[in-house]
Amino acid sequence: MTRPAAITIAVLLAGCATPKVTAIVAPVVDLRAQPHTDAQAGTHDPLQETQLLYGELVRVLKTEDGWAQVEAVEQPEFTHARKWQGYPGWVPASALSAEGRPWPTTIVVSEPWVETWQDAYRRQPSTWRFPMGTRLRAIEMGRQLWQVELLDGQTVWMPYAAARSLEELAALPPLERRQLILRHAERLIGEPYYWGGRSPADPRVLNKRAAAHGLDCSGLVNLTYRAAGLDIPRDAHEQFLNARRLNAPQPADLIFLSERGNPERIVHVMLYAGDGKLIEGPGTGLSVRRISVEDRLKQPLDWLTSGTVVDGQTVSFGSYAP
């Protein structure tokens, strides 16, 4: 299969002059295949597409009875229309900013969830909490706090250790970037599997109508790379399409599994953690886990090559890490 040219946000935004481009204004929002539907956690919900994080850009195609049909331009997707586009679906119109995103982001949240305060003395808690992978506009406050400007113009403060500068991440040496990806993945071990999920569990969410939280296999990979400053597609098949092909993985590279009997269709992705281990979101009803390659694929890594078939599924290796 030929690897396509790299897909970037700039490419997906090209030609967007007519449809409105705006941003998400909730910590996490479910992108649904149909409007007026609620996500069903703990099951394979066929209407659950993906999740959007605060500040992520969407292209608004139309609105209907309080819902908006959008393309999530920061999550490149190919399968729905057999062309690269922003991930398509529906979100509540109330989750969209009226102003768009007028500023570039400068930091990305690196903790599973981070709390914020209304004041720099951390005496007044803010209602805003953000999950890993959220990109925000902030200035550094003496390596103690980040001062964050939100989309509506208000300001909150968060711990300096809870986020990383995107500029600093871009300058990391390759080995440090790979190690950081794996540290993020290790922080998410034990998180619940949630089909279409792309956010760690938030124990403080009690409202049943709020977005459910958890991670599917490709959401785990997408989020850990995003938190390390790297943009990759959302779904396993798309991650495979745009990855560099490998004969053998290095730590933080990806191990793909195809649909049984169909090597052209990728249905699962795992992070290689080094030392013969991998980290994956294994499936509905299970949690993100670390497991040996041999236990998971019935063969040690040294015996596997791209094209090896295990229980009817074809194994492939790919990379986005430098």
Description:
This protein has 322 residues and is mainly β. It folds into 3 domains: 87 residues, SH3 Domains (SH3 type barrels), CATH 2.30.30; 62 residues, SH3 type barrels (Roll); 146 residues, endopeptidase fold (from Nostoc punctiforme) (Alpha-Beta Complex). Helices cover 15% and strands 37% of the residues. The protein contains 6 helices and 22 strands. Strands 16, 17, 18, 19, 20, 21 and 22 form a 7-stranded antiparallel sheet that branches. The chain has a 5-stranded antiparallel sheet with strand order 12-11-10-7-13. A hairpin with an 8-residue loop joins strand 19 and strand 20. The longest helix is centred in the middle third of the chain and has 14 residues. The protein starts with 8 loop residues before the first helix and ends with a strand. The N terminus is likely disordered.
The topology string of helices and strands comes to HEEEEEEEEEEEEEHHEEHHEEEEEHEE
Distance between the termini: 22 Å
Report strand %: 35-45%
What CATH calls the topology of the largest domain is endopeptidase fold (from Nostoc punctiforme)
CATH superfamily of the largest domain: endopeptidase domain like (from Nostoc punctiforme)
Indicate the CATH class of the largest domain.
Alpha Beta
CATH structural architecture of the largest domain: Alpha-Beta Complex
Main β-sheet: number of strands, strand sense, barrel status? 7 strands, antiparallel
Look at the helices and sheets and give the structural class.
mainly beta
The number of distinct β-strands equals 22
Supply Rg. Answer: 19 Å
Tally of separate domains: 3
> Count of DSSP helices?
6
Low-confidence runs of at least 5 consecutive residues: 1-5, 206-210
In helices, the fraction of residues equals 10-25%
Described by the principal axes of the CA atoms, the overall outline is globular
